[in-house]
Amino acid sequence: MELAGAITIFLGIYLSCLLVISTWRKHSRYKNLPPGPTPLPLIGNFLQIKMGDTLKSLERLRDQYGPVFTVYFGSKPIVVLCGHEAVKEALVDQAEEFSGRGAMPTVEKNFQGHGVVFANGERWRQLRRFSLTVLRNFGMGKRSIEERIREEAQYLLEAFRNTKAEPFDPTYFLSRAVSNVICSIVFGNRFDYEDKEFLSLLQMMNESFREISTPWSQFYDMYSSFLKYFPGPHTKIYHILEDMRKFIAKRVKQNQATLDSSSPRDFIDCFLIQMEKEKKNPSSEFNTTNLVLTTLNLFFAGTETVSSTLRYGFLFLMKYPEVEEKVHREIDHVIGRHRVPASEDRMKMPYTDAVIHEIQRLTDIVPLGVPHTVIRDTQFRGYTLPKGTNVFPLLGSVLRDTKYFSSPEEFNPGHFLDENGRFKKNEAFVPFSSGRRVCLGEGLARMELFLFLTTILQRFALQPLVAPKDIDVSPRMSGFGNVPPTYQLCLVPR
Ligand code: HEM
Ligand SMILES: *[C@@H]1O[C@H](CO)[C@@H](O)[C@H](O)[C@H]1NC(C)=O
Ligand SMILES: *[C@@H]1O[C@H](CO)[C@@H](O)[C@H](O)[C@H]1NC(C)=O
């Protein structure tokens, strides 16, 4: 009897909460949000979102509520945008309003709004403009970014030759090479593939990525206002990122000690020179906090994205050998077997360009996008989004928009070719997102994908260990990021 009494009281309280909340919502500033499933107190729409398969759950809600809807993660409303039209109307047509960075609770304690990815307002503007300038090759000494990538591609070739056409897992080969490109840009040097310090840096990156992609972390992201008072996976992420921050801070000290303002060697030198220039400006955002955390951002945003895309790319090429064959032929025709590929070759290689676009489209590296927020009260499609409302542009739903891709689920380079075999742009191609927050490393990433892929395919043919039709290309994990399946292959010299 006592149990029944307790349950009745609990239900009573719970139902009154429901009533209070639904009344409150009608009168609150959130009263004109897009439609969506009714949230429950504390847990929000937990019952409608399947952890570990967030994209699918959200796409199911789109079928019910249309391309723009609201879901509650805990007590926080999130406005979700699906398909090319809705995402473009927000991020491009109302670019300024939608340019804020939304909350990412799992890493909040490490960054606290510093560093270009998590900054907002004037801080973000200054850090973004500066980082873009440096990445576009202004003022970073004598060696261009392209040279740095070409050098690294040669080291990667050598490592591949050492596999002697035996089966191996390409994961670490690719992530070391890609990470070294960022190292060369920010630290001014690449690391030997066996260097202990380098391997521990990669280990930290690997672990934090794994932690951030677990269903637990996603759960934490949704219910952080409550869970932050308890120990959990976020404590682990915090410590790993803290170790990486210390590593970078140490490198910054080394640069400071050896800085020659007249010949900057790398990104850190350029930043230090800017700090010096703005020493007297009280509103300058150029200090060591932003330097270290922006550098950490570049590592994170620039390593796993490019290397996972390449890893997925190999897999698609093995599943569709006729596509690989055509790329080989185009490389032989335009570059030949001996000259090292250069980024200007891309213009003469529409087929390879289309293949890389199609690889990026299906790899869909950040299917849910990176959270945005509106920086002021915003009218959108007749709804009112109060300042600070989080917005998820579902990039995965744009990349598979049936209106823009004839066979969205299939690997088909034809999505990016016209009837004469010329490269054809597609406005729903948004793996880098769009608008003011568009990926800051887009140019670098595209150059890396092209140079690494052509350099490898100029020398090697990919050989799977199973029949092409048996290759499974569905992601191993799909959370914040899509993680490609693990596999082995042989690289056969050609
Ligand atoms: C295939 C490779 C890559 C993909 C698919 C990719 C994708 C993205 C996406 C979807 C965003 C979020 C944009 C938004 O907020 O709407 C982003 C942001 C960002 N990416 Fe990339 N990225 C890639 C490579 C890189 C590289 C190589 C770098 C390093 C330089 C980089 C640096 C950044 C930075 C700093 C931001 C934050 C920009 C800001 O908040 O203003 N990314 N990227
Ligand atoms: C991280 O390392 C583990 C084991 O060392 C490996 O299985 C996994 O694929 C790595 N993950 C990434 C993203 O490199
Ligand atoms: C850098 O500036 C930010 C505010 O813009 C401040 O929070 C931070 O403590 C500063 N860091 C240093 C090392 O001065």
From TrEMBL:
KW Phosphoprotein (keyword) present: no
Binding locations of heme: 439
Domain of life: Eukaryota
Transmembrane spans: 6-24
Catalytic reaction(s) noted: an organic molecule + reduced [NADPH--hemoprotein reductase] + O2 = an alcohol + oxidized [NADPH--hemoprotein reductase] + H2O + H(+)
Subcellular location: Endoplasmic reticulum membrane; Microsome membrane
InterPro entries named among the record's database cross-references: Cyt_P450 (IPR001128), Cyt_P450_CS (IPR017972), Cyt_P450_E_grp-I (IPR002401), Cyt_P450_E_grp-I_CYP2A-like (IPR008067), Cyt_P450_sf (IPR036396), Cytochrome_P450_fam2 (IPR050182)
GO-annotated molecular function: arachidonate epoxygenase activity; heme binding; iron ion binding; oxidoreductase activity, acting on paired donors, with incorporation or reduction of molecular oxygen, reduced flavin or flavoprotein as one donor, and incorporation of one atom of oxygen
Family: Belongs to the cytochrome P450 family.
Protein name: Cytochrome P450 2G1-like
Source organism (scientific name): Pelodiscus sinensis
Species lineage: Eukaryota, Metazoa, Chordata, Craniata, Vertebrata
